[in-house]
Amino acid sequence: MNLEYFIAKRLITARDFKSSISAPIIKIAISAIAIGIIMMLVSVATGIGLQQKIREKVSAFNGQIVISNYDNNNSEVTLIPISKKQDFYPNFKSVPEVTHVQAIASKAGIIRTESSFEGIIFKGVGLDYDWNKIKEYLVEGKLPDYAKGINEEVIISRFLADRLGLKVGDNFNTFFIKEEQGKMPNSRRFKITGIFNSGFQSFDATYIIGDIRHIQKINKWNPNQVGAFEVFVKDFDKIKETGDKIYEQTSSSLDTKTMIEKYSYIFDWLQLFDFNIIVILAIMIIVATINMVVALLVLILERTQMIGILKALGANNWAVRKIFLYNAFYLIIRGLFWGNLIGISLLLVQQYFGVIQLNPENYYVNQAPVYINWVYVVLLNLLTITVCFVVLLIPSYIITKISPVKAIRFD
Fold first, then answer.
1. If you write DSSP's letter for every residue of 16-46 in order, what string do you get?
2. pTM
């Protein structure tokens, strides 16, 4: 029998344990542990969730790595075409980290309605375009179908649709300015089949997505000429390394730019979340540990006579310390139980019901995204237990200074 565990268990289950002087302090310590783990779970889940959601959105509408001509680097529109006859298209076999390559082209234009007009960029896509990546952002209508040949179907953002007074099924005229000066612009009439909402103001206020063959006809390109290639990779965390490999495997006339380079202002902002998460974890663990130290000291002072009796009966210092460490471990586990129960419940509610809404102009998402990874949950719990337990070894050392004679007479 483990004598120290047996005594600790009897102390915990004793009736006077709940009505003792230390009871309020013990409840505060348990509450501190619970609140700490709730805050840590929420900060990690929402911080990582926001980072991943923004990554997904940016890559869904822009690709993770873009291969283009050097002449197009400072422009959102295609200036000089690229041939589709490339070694890396449609399958980038020389770089196994690449999962998909799709050809796109873009051209500036103006949408004109009876009551308003807006400058836009027409993003042309083809049969190789992966619609699954933006399907979840479609809020109304359906995706266009370009399998049967060139057509006028496009999808437009909610932002542009509201500003122009358009809805699904409406037709509108778009004018594309020719590169040659003095010539009349090209006119195309498109039909809205779907409305999307990406949450990125810069994208929603500018882009519509349609058939790439319209741009090829307007620019007088042949069917094998496109504006750029969007590349998707397996592991986003290794996007820089993969981007360097792609650069090495492409022609010297082509350049590659990762999503992080193109939208550096967004990803620099996202990196701040890592620092914020670390700060929150540190503060919560410190607060929980301080409360547990206070609770342990109170328990020791409350049981001073018992410590003296145990020492008088032959118990060594470490054996007595283990009794109180078992006691503290029980309090930590209780706090973690309630903290995990409440914290995970809150995260699940947010994940399935989206209770907390965010301003997309500031956060690029409509609601606080949640990423629940059970490995992170376990690691946070183990981190809390380990830090608290190690720190509690220090105040438990006070037991070694307690004299049996003085302790028995202590009142």
1. HHHTSTTHHHHHHHHHHHHHHHHHHHHHHHH
2. 0.80
